Each structure stands twice: as structure tokens, then as C-alpha cells.
Amino acid sequence: MKKLQMFLRMVGKAFKERKSRVAIAFFAIVVGVGIIASLFSVYYDISIKMSEELRVYGANLVLAPDSQTSNKEMNIKELNKVVNKFDKDKLVGYRPNLYGVVKAKTKGVLDVKKPVVLVGTWFDQVDQVNPYWKVEGELLANKKVDDEVVLGKEAAKKLGYDIGDTLTILSEKTGKQKELIVSGIITTGNEADNQVFVNLTLAQELLGKTNKINVAYFSVLGQGLRPKVKQINKTVDGIELETIKKIASSEGKVLKKIKSLMYLVVMIILLSTLLCVSTTMMTIVTERKEEIGLKKALGAENSNIIIEFLTEAAILGGIGGLVGYGIGFLGAQAIGQSVFDSYISFRIMVVPASFILAVLVSCLASIIPVRMVVDIDPAVVLKGE
Amino acid sequence: MFLRIIRRSLTKGLKSKLLAIIAIAFGASLATAMLSVSLNIGDKVNNELKSYGSNIVVEPVSESLPVKINGVNFNPITQNQDYIPEDDITKIKMIFWRHNIVNLAPYLEITAQLSNNRKVAVVGTWFDRKTRIPTGEKFNFGVKYLKSWWDIEGNWIKNGDNKGLALVGREIAEASNLSPGDELRLEFNINNQTVTKKIKVQGIIDSGGEEEGKIYLPLNILQQITGLEDKVAKIEVSALTTPVNDLARKAQQDPNALSDEEFEKWYCTAYVSSIAYQIEEVIPDVVAQEVRQISQSEGVILNKIKLLMFLVTIAALISSGLGISSIMTTKVLERRKEIGLLKAIGSSNWGVIALFITEISLLGILGGVLGYGLGIGFANLIGQQVFGTAISVKLLVMPIILILSVVVALLGSISPLRIALKLEPAEVLHG
């Protein structure tokens, strides 16, 4: 009992009497662990965060009727069936398209009609599925608007229309004619620039294809979509869901690079931080060789001294590790907020990991110099210079 | 005397300072590695993002509006289409930002009929073509590089293979039950005359895109069939670009609205819009358009990764600064006796400070140089491992690292030096 009291007093005093040294070591551990913890938190989240970011490229899956279907049309019910197969939080957005050729009156007095591609779609999904579209004016407010139209940039230029004008389109197949107000003009840099967009229901009515669509584009989060796609193709008949390789395979490549980059960087920082922390601990212990000599002269066993120093180091490392984790978590949030505009998720794993790492490093860093000093004859250390 | 003390302290006491030098070197190497990687990351990631394909499309100026669904022409009236002369393609490699042009491929597209009366788009292109540009340099251009995501069942077509080979989209192959090696009859309607051409399926394209519904032939073959010699309808260009900023947005509205100074700055920056502008300059009567899906997204991702690396670099700098300063603190504290002795034999506080500053600066420089060398090694390890290419070392990093190591080492010594100087010599020296 007495022994334990003495031991505790020695450890307590060691902290109390050497405040500036303890503060240096503590500071080193806290900052070191803080940096490591924040980088690891970010590292664990990087795949999810980057894959969310890479959705700016737009759709990565395309749904079309299978090659047996001759007219390349499918019922919109098929789309809903496929949508239900995805988790709500994984599905960023989906947008059906129905294509048809109609005639549009060019602007001017002459009654010139030009053929254009009419696309029926859902405009509320454009932001999710085609975030790169540049929209002048407005897209259609909801799925019910049936007197407005959005023109591709080239279509607008070559037909001669601007926002606010009224455009008449005529479907030769059904003989239906419709006057539409141009609400917006889109620039995409692909074939959508040549097309004319209306709400899906209106296009279905004009083309006489009730409830029909040609394709649907999906933007879905997550790597390894292939098994999911295969499974859906098996369970839903008459359709073919396919990954758009241009987006999906490039995404995989880019994600892999970024992940391995972060891994190496975090590892190098981890290594160097650990080295810095342990050199600090080492010098602080080396300084105390006189104290070790004195203790030995008073009759302490080698093992007593080692245990005492280890306890000190463990306490320092443990507290430093926990405080460091706290700072690291805040640091990770700072990175998450500024880079990804979202929080880095809390991972319980990192807490014990930082704690154990800090204790281990501080113990290891103090045990090496202590062992070197312990074997020396106390007289040599104590005689002074 | 001053110099002698310094020299002695660096020669005799070198062993005890070794730890400090090593610590500084490690800190400096970490800082060097991270700074080098961070300064280079934009270029590296930009190159990786090229796997998403072309970001500029060049087409002839045209009055007519294409009526195409998935490449199949639905325009009932055959109009005179405009074309770009094939010889003009290489001019793209001659613009101001020619080194940023990574790859390109020309296309000529025509609608043909399969034997089952199905209409398909037939595309003539370069697959993997060795092209000599007017400066004499040679490059390999073609869809093989531009469309890195194409999976080919069978083989790619080598250019120069003029034996009537074709790559067929997967959808067509499945619908007509074709596999590599099979033959296929295509019917073209050229000037109201039916031309039939037999081709051999060399490979099947699996891309998950509209290419699956098309047939690809070597450009010169399709030009012969259609009588459109030396003509192409579209060129896709993949260029390394700088993310768009306000200036680029302003220029995109109307390059002529820029002031001379702004114009020059815009023209000499590799924005996608300035590269497109330069392509329009060298090839007459074409429009070069950015593919927003690629160019816009590229900018977003690039900026994110740069910011991420910047923050990580700051973390690394803090970590290395911490290492250097804490080792200096303990090292100075260790030498209280020496400071006491110096004061006891009559040195002023300033004398001691000058001595330590000189010594620490020397340590800082020594450690910094060592660390710089080590850090370059680390940086290249990262570059090789992740991107398969070396990190180009910026000269700027060297002075930054030296200044950093010296300043941080000095900062770390300030407070212990103040403590040591406050002590009475007798107190420290009595043993």
C-alpha cells in the first residue's frame, strides 16, 4: 500500500515539478495525434465524398428496351419498377426521354417549317442528372406545364427564337399542333443543343405514344454497380439497364487514384509525425538520466524505474491522444466543410486507434532512452561534470 | 572568438546535435514532399480526368439543324451538308496551346441500311493513326486513345488495315447475331444510287453509350464509299484545360467584349474557351464547342482536389513545424548550464542570443537541405505509385523549405532561451 502511494506520488510530482517539459511533450502528442486523426477521418470518407462529387458528370446508368423490342419503346411502368430497385439515398436522380421528329415553324412571316427532334422529359431532374447544362431563362416549373418549351442553343438559333417567343410545333404523325412559349435555352455542347424539350406527357400526347418512353438516365452513387445492374436486368423483363462506361469506368479510375494518393500522403504524414513526437519524448527522458541514477543509488530496481517511466508516458500519451482526437475530429470537419460542403462522418474506430497509437508511441519513445540509462552505473551519472 | 565557439559547437558537439538535425531533416522532408505533390497535383489529376474523353467538339459552320436520334438521320430532305477538309485536322496541333491537345479523332457519319432493313449510323474515324503534323512531329491519334472506356470484344482496327474491317456496336451485333469474324452487308444510298459494301466484323464495342448502336469503319474507307474524299464532319478534341473563372466566363459570352489586356490574358491561359477560340482561328468556317459535361465537371473536380491537397499540405506543414520546434525547445533547455557559464564569464544576453541564433540557423539550413533531398524522394515515390509519373520539382520549394526550417527552429528556441537567460548563472552552475 505504502509502495503504491509512493509510486503515485513520484508520478504526480514528475508532472507537477517539470511543468514546461511535460507541456512540450503533451503539446507534441496532441498536435501529432490531432493531425493523424483528422487525416484518417477524411481518408475513410474520401471514397464516398469523391463519388458524390463525381456525380457532376451526370448519369452513369442508362435504361432502354432490350434488343428484342423492335420499336425501341417501353412503358413508363418499367421505369418505376427499376427505380424501386434502388435505395432512395443512393439514387441521385433519374430522367426519362421520349424522342420524336416534329415540324417547327421558323420565326418570320414566311410559313417555313423545319423538322426538329422533340424530346419529352422531366425538368425537375435536370439538376441531378445533367448538372452541367447551362440554362438561360427557366426550365419548366413542374411536370404539368403544357404550354412551354425549352430549346437547345442551336435549335433556338437556327429556328430564330428567343426566350418569351411563341413557337408552333406540328406532329405529322398525329396531326396535332401546339403553340408553346419558349421559357429557356440550354447550352450543353452535345446533341441536346439541336433538340427541343417539352414535358413528357405533352410529348406523349403530340407523338401519340401514351405512357411510352425511349430511354431513361440514372445517376446512382456508389462503386461496383455491375452486380446490381445484372440483378435488375434479371428481375425486370423487356428492359436493359446498362452502365455508361464513359462515366462509370472513368469514375472508378479517378477514385482509385485519389484514394491511393490520400493513402500514401496520410501514411507519410503519420510516419513523420510519429517520428517527431517520439524524438521529443526521447530527449525529454534522456535529460532525466541523473534522476534515474539517483533512484538507482537509493535502491530502486531497474524494473521499478522502467514501470514508473512507462506509467508516466502512458498517462501523458493517453490524455494527449484523447485531446488530440478531439482536435483531429474538428480538423476533419473543417476539411469536410471547406472541400465537400458536408460533414465527415464520425467513426468510432478512430477514437481507440488514436488513443492506443498515442500511448504506444509515447511509451516506446521513452522506453528506449530509459533502457539505455538504466544499465549505467549510478556513480557515473551522478558524479557530474 | 564568436566563430570559434560556433565551429567548436558544430564539430565537437555534433553528436548531440545529430538528433536535432535529423528531426529538422524529417520535418523538412515531409514539408518538401507535400509541397511538391500539392503544386503538381493539378496537372496530374487533370491528366487522369482525360479518361472521361474529349472536351471540345469541332464542327463546320452550318445553317441546317441536324435531325438525328442516336446518330440516325431523320431529316426527310437531304441537304447539302458542310464538311471540314481532312488536311485541316493537324492544324489543331499547331495552335498556341498545342501541347495541351492530348488527342483527337475525326468523324464522318452516314446512315446505311442493314440487310434486315434496319437503319444504322455508320461512322468513319481514325482508330489508331500515326499522324505527322506540319512541324514534322508524329503523334498517335484516334478513338482508341480518346475513348479509353470502350471494351472491344475481338480486336481494334489498325489504321492502314484497308481490308474492309469494321467495329460494330454491341446492340447491333446482338440484334443481328454477329460475332467477330462475321461478314456484314451495308447498303448506302449515295446520290439516289444504292451502293452495297461487304465488311468484316473485327470487334464488337461495349461502351454503354450510343456507340453501341453504330458501326465504325476506317475514315478513308467510308470516304471512298460516299465519294466524300478528304472530308470529315466532326472532330473531337481532348485538351488539358484550366478550370473556368470569371474572366473565362466573360470571354465565353463574347471574346470581343474583352479589353486588350484581358484578351491577352485569356488567350494565353489554357481555358477550354480560349483553346476552342484558337481552333476556330486556324481552321476556317468551323465552330469549336466545349462539351460541358466534360469541361465543366473537370473544373469542379479539379478545384476540389486542389483544395483538399492544400489543406492536407497545411496539416503536414503544421506537423513538421511542430516536430522541428519541439526538438529545438528541448535542445536549448538542455544547455542551460552552458548559457549560465557564458554569462558567468561575462557574456551579455545579446551575445548569447546571437550565438544561439547563428547556431540554430546553421542547423536549420543543414537539416533543411538534407530534408529537401529526402522530400524529393518521397514526392517521387507518391508520383510513381499513384500516377506512374515523376513529380516535377518546382525550384520555388527549395527556398520555402530552407526558410521554413530556419524560422521554425528559431521560433521553437525563443521561449526556452528566454527561460534560460532569466536564470541566475550561479543557480544553474552550482550543480
Question: What's the short story on this structure?
Answer:
The complex is a heterodimer of chains A (385) and B (431). Chain A is α+β, with helices and mostly antiparallel strands and 385 residues long.
List the helices and strands and how they pair.
The complex is a heterodimer of chains A (385) and B (431).
Chain A: H1 2-17, H2 19-53, E1 61-65, E2 74-75, H3 76-84, E3 91-105, E4 113-121, H4 126-129, E5 134-137, E6 148-152, H5 153-159, E7 166-170, E8 177-187, E9 195-199, H6 200-207, E10 212-213, E11 215-220, H7 226-235, E12 239-243, H8 245-286, H9 289-297, H10 302-340, H11 350-374, H12 378-382
Parallel strand pairs in A: 4-9, 6-8
Antiparallel strand pairs in A: 1-11, 1-12, 2-10, 3-4, 3-7, 3-11, 5-8, 6-9, 7-8
Chain B: H1 2-11, H2 14-49, E1 56-60, E2 68-69, E3 72-73, E4 84-85, E5 101-113, E6 119-125, E7 129-132, E8 138-141, H3 143-146, E9 151-154, E10 165-169, H4 170-175, E11 183-190, E12 193-206, E13 214-218, H5 219-226, E14 231-232, E15 234-239, H6 246-253, H7 260-267, H8 272-282, E16 286-290, H9 292-334, H10 336-344, H11 349-387, H12 397-422, H13 425-429
Parallel strand pairs in B: 6-13, 10-12
Antiparallel strand pairs in B: 1-15, 1-16, 2-3, 4-14, 5-6, 5-11, 5-15, 7-8, 9-12, 10-13, 11-12
Helix pairs in contact in B: 2-9, 2-11, 2-12, 9-12, 11-12
